[in-house]
Structure formats: structure tokens, C-alpha cells
Design goal:
Blueprint: H1 33-38, H2 43-51, H3 61-90, E1 95-102, E2 104-116, E3 127-140, E4 143-149, E5 152-159, E6 166-168, E7 173-175, E8 181-184, E9 188-190, E10 194-196, E11 199-201, E12 203-211, E13 224-225, H4 235-238, E14 239-243, E15 253-259, H5 262-287, E16 292-309, E17 316-331, H6 332-343, E18 351-353, E19 360-363, E20 376-389, H7 393-399, H8 405-412, E21 418-426, E22 440-444
Parallel strand pairs: 1-22
Antiparallel strand pairs: 1-21, 2-20, 3-17, 4-15, 5-12, 5-14, 6-9, 7-8, 8-12, 10-11, 13-14, 16-17, 18-20, 19-20
Length: 448
């Protein structure tokens, strides 16, 4: 079979790609400059050559998404790790605050009671505190007169002989180391010895003594005494006395003094005593510790006329008086317990009366009270008493160690001294109280 040959058929007048001259190409044919100049490239081809750019290499779509998600997961992991560290470290700083409001009760009271100077356990006791001062007032003189004033002062008598009380009759003598004699004006009973915590304490009583004779030699101030009537008796060595530091023995005077009209003297004394009462009351009240209370109506006073003072004017005289205050004070805790036992029912009587100062206190027959000899006082107490239950902070903090916050309120119901309570825990994301009681703070706030 004869072979067929395919030949290129080029239309007349048209150029094939094979015969298009390429500028600058060396195909073994010499190309002349004029031929190049005559060779024309279509304008569209030139423009296309100028704007064409090499293809941009693109990252496969799958690879780009994978890198982005990898960065996100690294960020999330770091954040979670940071929160885990913060949460773990926060255990070291966890704390809780329990704010409680104690139970309160306002009760009107009007009671009569008694207190003893040397009360036994369970009885209300009182203490006598004293203070002395002096004041003067200038008064017009009307002449002169001779006076003979004996020395006087207070002494404390001690019974270290037996547990039995000892009666000393009126005019009993007391002798100083120099042989000067002083006497008591009324009968007195000296209490017997007491044993306190295994220690024997002598009984004692404070009394006023007067010099047996006139003369300034009896202004002995502070000194010791014996009882001459007990000489030759075992009691002589076991009974003793010494001056009361608050009232040294003095005031003796013998001589001529300016005379004052009785009415003028009485008016001056009244004025002096009023001033002394106010000054002594204010001064003594300021010295009472916060643990005790001195009611305004629980004080008695005594006054003593002292020798006349000198005056610059010859026509006047200085009236001088010494005043002493004796206050009956109570321990606030003891008085609160006394009222609680009378007014509060139930087992929990750990209560304070927080407004004792506003109650009205009066002593029965105050004028008969003698700070030297009286051992029992009867009184009345009235007003609106405010009772507030005590809060045991340590007990509360210990009872809530490791407790869930949701159960704390129910557990607080077991404390009948609490009216209401609130619990907060830090950091906020903790719902369990610390396992260390020292990290649980208990705050007490009053009921509004």
C-alpha cells in the first residue's frame, strides 16, 4: 500500500510560525538591522508582555488552616495552665469572715437586792473606795476667841489572833510608839481572820480616833499603834493598828483665833461642802476603772473642820474644811450576772447588761451607811436593762473549720447566742471554709 505523506498547507500570502523572523535569534541566518526595523509586533502583544507577572506561589489551603489552629491551641493551653496555677496558689491565701449579730433583749427591771463587803461565792459583793480633799473660803471676822482643838484621824485595826470577831468598847485606847494615847468614840467590832486560797488574812476595820489630850504634839500623821488594854494577854501581840494613809492624824491646835459670826461660818461651810462634793464626785468617778461602776447615788461624804487659815486682811479669816467621799463600787461583770440570774430564763446565761450606767441605783438609808463599820448594803435598781448575749469567737471559728459555705448558716442555728450571721470566703471561687481556724475571723456587730 502506498504511503501517504502529510504536507503543511500554507495559504497564500499567510505566514507560518516557522517563517516568522525572531529578532536577535541566531538561526544560522544573518538578520539585518533594516529587517528588524521593518519587523512589527502587534501592539496588543507588547502590552501583554509588559503587564504579565510571574505566577505567585500559594500555600495550600489545608496547610494554612493547620498552622492557625495550632497557634490557637497553644494560647488556650497556656491560659488554662495559668488559671490552674492561680487556683492552686489561691489555696494558700483562702480565708473566711463570719459576721455575727448577738442576741439582745430589753427588759424593764425594778428589783431590791443586797451586797456584802466580804461576800461568799455566788453573792453580790461591793468595794468601798475613798478620796479626800480640802477647800477654804474667806469670811469676815468679828473678833477673837481662844480654841483648844484635839488631833484626830483614821486608823485601821487588825485582828490576827483568831477567826472570831473581837469587840472593842467605846473609849478603847490606842498608843503610839512615843506613848501618845488616842481613843475611839464608839464601840467597834473587828472581824476575825479569813483563809483565802490557803493564805490566812487578818480581819480589819477602819475607825476614827481622837487624841486623849490637846496639843500639837498629837499631830502624828502616819504611825503605828498598840492596844494597851491587851497587855499581859496573847491578844496584845496579835492585835495592831496603823494610820489610814487617806486620813493622817492631825488638826490639833491650841491658841487664839479670829472669831466669825455663826451664821457667816455656817454659810461658808455649806458653800465649801457643796464645792467639795462636786469636785470629789467628779475626781473619784474619773478614777474608777472600766471594769467597775460607781453609781451617782452610791456615795457618801464626811467633812472635818480644819484650823483657820491665814488671811492677808486683818478683818477676815479663812474657813478651811476637809471633805472625804466614800464610793460603793461594783464589778460590772458581777452586777450583770446578778441581774441575769434574776431576769433571764434558760440555760445560756452568758449575758452582759450593756447599759448599767443608765439604770437608777439607790441605797436604802444612805445616811446610816458607815464606810468604817458597815458590811452590808441594801439597794434598789430600776430602769430598762439591755441584755446582750456573749459571743465565743474561738468556739465559732473552731466549729466551722473545713465546713461548706452552704452549711454554715444551718450550723449557726446551734448557737442560741446569735441572732443572725453572714459568711464570706475569699477568694470568691471557694465554697469551703479554711481548714485552719486561725484563717476564720469572727466579727461581732450590734443589732441595729
Amino acid at each position: 500500500m502506498a504511503k501517504k505523506f502529510v504536507q503543511d498547507i500554507v495559504p497564500g500570502g499567510r505566514r507560518s510560525i516557522r517563517n516568522i523572523p525572531l529578532p536577535g535569534a541566531k538561526l544560522g541566518v544573518d538578520i539585518k538591522a533594516e529587517d528588524i526595523s521593518e519587523t512589527k509586533i502587534p501592539e496588543t502583544e507588547i502590552i501583554q508582555t509588559k503587564i504579565s507577572k510571574p505566577p505567585v506561589s500559594k500555600t495550600p489551603k489545608g496547610m494554612k488552616s493547620s498552622g492557625r489552629f495550632k497557634g490557637v491551641w497553644v494560647w488556650v493551653g497556656s491560659t488554662v495552665a495559668l488559671f490552674v496555677v492561680i487556683y492552686a496558689v489561691s489555696f494558700m491565701f483562702v480565708s473566711a469572715t463570719v459576721t455575727v449579730t448577738p442576741k439582745e433583749s430589753n427588759i424593764p427591771v425594778s428589783i431590791s437586792g443586797s451586797a456584802s463587803l466580804q461576800a461568799s461565792e455566788g453573792q453580790l459583793s461591793y468595794t468601798v473606795v475613798s478620796l479626800s480633799s480640802q477647800a477654804s473660803k474667806e469670811v469676815r471676822a468679828s473678833g477673837e476667841e481662844k480654841v483648844d482643838r484635839r488631833a484626830s484621824g483614821k486608823i485601821v485595826i487588825y485582828n490576827n489572833f483568831s477567826t472570831s470577831p473581837q469587840v472593842l468598847i467605846a473609849k478603847t485606847r490606842f498608843e503610839t510608839p512615843k506613848g501618845l494615847i488616842f481613843r475611839i468614840s464608839d464601840q467597834v467590832t473587828v472581824p476575825g481572820q479569813r483563809v483565802i486560797s490557803g493564805v490566812t488574812t487578818p480581819g480589819s476595820v477602819t475607825v476614827t480616833v481622837f487624841a486623849d489630850q490637846s496639843g500639837e504634839d498629837y499631830n502624828v500623821g502616819l504611825t503605828d499603834f498598840t492596844i494597851p488594854g491587851f497587855k499581859g494577854d496573847p491578844r496584845f501581840e496579835k492585835f495592831s493598828a496603823k494610820s489610814d494613809p487617806t486620813s493622817p492624824i492631825g488638826g490639833a491646835f491650841s491658841g487664839v483665833v479670829k472669831k466669825v459670826i455663826a451664821s457667816d461660818a455656817a454659810s461658808a461651810k455649806a458653800s465649801i461642802e457643796t464645792k467639795l462634793k462636786n469636785d470629789l464626785q467628779d475626781t473619784l468617778s474619773s478614777q474608777i476603772p472600766d471594769t467597775h461602776i460607781l453609781f451617782k447615788n452610791a456615795s457618801t461624804f464626811s467633812f472635818e473642820e480644819l484650823p483657820q487659815g491665814t488671811s492677808a486682811a486683818t478683818s477676815t479669816v479663812m474657813i478651811v474644811e476637809k471633805g472625804s467621799i466614800y464610793g460603793i463600787i461594783f464589778a460590772r461583770e458581777d452586777l450583770s450576772r446578778f441581774l441575769t440570774n434574776l431576769q433571764i430564763s434558760g440555760e445560756n446565761k452568758e449575758v452582759d447588761v450593756v447599759n448599767l450606767d443608765s439604770l437608777v441605783f439607790t441605797i436604802d438609808n444612805l445616811n446610816a451607811f458607815n464606810p468604817d463599820t458597815s458590811k452590808v448594803v441594801s439597794f434598789k435598781l430600776s430602769g430598762n436593762a439591755k441584755f446582750v448575749w456573749k459571743i465565743d469567737k474561738e468556739k465559732i471559728s473552731n466549729s466551722f473549720v473545713g465546713q461548706k459555705k452552704s452549711k454554715v448558716r444551718a450550723n449557726l442555728a446551734g448557737f442560741d447566742s446569735i441572732e443572725k450571721a453572714n459568711v464570706s470566703v475569699k477568694p470568691l471561687w471557694f465554697f469551703t471554709l479554711p481548714k485552719d481556724a486561725k484563717k476564720i475571723r469572727v466579727e461581732v456587730q450590734p443589732l441595729i
